[in-house]
Amino acid sequence: MSRLSESDYLLEQYKTSDNLDAQRDLHSMFSTEKWIFDQIDMTPDGNLIEAGCGTGALWLENVDRIPPGWQITLSDMPPGMLEKTRTDLASSSRDITCKTFDIQEIPEEMEYST
User: How many structural domains does the chain have?
Assistant: First the structure.
């Protein structure tokens, strides 16, 4: 698949969160979000980018475990997917930003430690 057709496919598949929600429902009995979070090795004041965050399930599951000094940027290409993430995390007191961009084109001005 060419880069353009891969991007078009992903945008179509995940223009809303419905397809990813269906996939996540299938795997909900075997959640790995807490384990994955435990593998993050970052300083207390680190900057983190997750490219392809989907609906932000990793962060929703661990929102109370996020150290107050972390600055987190969550990204995905499909705007509908990212809007659900933004809405679901809106009440969090942590420094979490949602931005739409393709992992193949991370904006140069973004700083991160992990």
Answer: 1
Please tell me the total number of residues recorded for the chain in this structure.
114
Backbone phi, psi, residue 70, to 5°? -70, 140
Task: Decide: 73 and 112 in contact? Cβ < 8 Å.
Answer: yes
111 in a structural domain: no
Cα angle, residue 12 at apex, residues 8 and 17 outer, rounded to 5°: 135
pTM of structure = 0.72
User: Domain of 60: which CATH number?
Assistant: 3.40.50.150
Residues 6+ apart with CB under 8 A from 24: 54, 55, 57
The residue type found at 75 is S
> What does the pLDDT read at residue 61?
92
